Amino acid sequence: MTDNNNRLLLLCEKFIKKEYGLIEFQSRMGTANFPDHLSNFQDEIINRLEIIKFTEKEIDYYRQTLEVIEELKKQLLK
């Protein structure tokens, strides 16, 4: 596993542990270095987080973002 993958997983863990909220997590995902083969997926993640932020109730942010994180983890561990 590459350093970039480890950093992305660390960002996910910080959200899971509630060290980051949705907005901070989204910001960090936007500036993270994704592996080349996942660069398009980075845009998808940012878009999905944006949709959560503007269409979901704040109480649902955590649960919805966890779904995005699970998909990211699957992609990173392929």
Name a few traits of the molecule.
78 residues, globular, 0% strand, mainly alpha
What does this structure look like?
- The structure is a single chain.
- This protein is mainly alpha-helical and 78 residues long.
- It contains 4 helices and no strands.
- Helix 3 (39-55) runs antiparallel to helix 4.
- The radius of gyration is 12 Å and the shape is globular.
Helix and strand topology:
Layout: H1 3-16, H2 22-31, H3 39-55, H4 61-76
Helix pairs in contact: 1-2, 1-4, 2-3, 3-4
DSSP helix fraction: over 70%
Give the helix tally. Answer: 4
Tally of DSSP β-strands: 0
What would the average pLDDT be, to the nearest integer? 94
Q: Give the overall form.
A: globular
Distance between the termini: 10 Å
Instruction: Give the radius of gyration.
Output: 12 Å
